[in-house]
Amino acid sequence: MPISQQEMERRIVRYGELKPCRTAFIDAHTPGSNSKENFTIIGGGVSESPDQHVHIKETPGFNIGAAGQPPKCRNSLHSHRTAEVFFVLKGRWRFFWGRWGNAGEVVLEEGDIFNIPTGIFRGFENIGTDYGMIMAILGGDDAGGGVIWAPQVIEDAKDHGLVLGENGKLYDTKKGQALPEGIKPMPLLTDEQLKAFPETPVTAVVRDYVARYWDLMALSRNAPAKVIGENALLRDKPGFEVEFLTRGSIPQDAYSVDRHEVLMVMRGHWRLAWEGGETVLAPGDTCAVPPGLRHSLAPSMTGEASLYRISNTADSAGATWRG
């Protein structure tokens, strides 16, 4: 099925055109977290703010987002009901987890990917020297219905003017906002509820859930490296599959698949051609290729070239994007 140039461009979110939100979450005023930027690229994500711009509202069974942070800025401890996968596009990042963030930590460099185990509190911070960016994949069409915050995060936020309602929306008391009538504050997790969030040892997390960029480069010399999914390098089958492609592992001929395919460029520039047009994808660009579209990929320049390819699976939550 041919697709026009204009239609395909609507399926591409360019890195330089990303629109940030600095009030996306409850820690937006908390010192140390108040300079982060959040982006929703495909799907509504889990933002708690009406100010969040959504680039592509339809979902292929998962959501794509990103977080940009200056040095020493952190994202507070939280959990999700579905999968959360990050890869580092720019910078150097420390990921930490546990009830108080001290159960374990791992440092990720550019290109590294982390399939964070579902059901643990996690946070992350930019420990590099420049503005950093991490790209995120969240399971499900509705990304699990929101964020579960560690109790201290909600309490700290209240001290700085932000209150999260039980409806999942933020209210800024510094702007004179108050909870609407009939809406109560989001309740803190009880000690009994907190027992459901394990203090996962660092060795288990790094061994089973982290893949390093240069290992993936080696593994994908002749064929795409299966990173997440059936018989893949990392544990869990979260409702989507992730593959890593390099210059030597791209299909030699044009191909099509019967699933949604999202291309997220890590390094280099890639020529994407299809019946109806062609374009070039640059680092940080995200492209949603529709099912059944015959297309081809090739690096458009010499040098290092790599990208992540995400596809929905049979257990994806609905795939509302049917086109």
From TrEMBL:
The keyword Metal-binding applies. Residues 71-134 form the Cupin type-2 domain. Pfam families: AraC_binding (PF02311), Cupin_2 (PF07883). Gene3D superfamilies: Jelly Rolls (2.60.120.10). Residues 258-308 form the AraC-type arabinose-binding/dimerisation domain. InterPro entries: AraC-bd (IPR003313), Cupin_2 (IPR013096), GPI/OXD (IPR051610), RmlC-like_jellyroll (IPR014710), RmlC_Cupin_sf (IPR011051). Keywords: DNA-binding, Metal-binding. It comes from the Bacteria. GO terms for biological process: regulation of DNA-templated transcription. GO terms for molecular function: DNA binding; metal ion binding. The keyword Metal-binding applies. This is Cupin domain-containing protein.
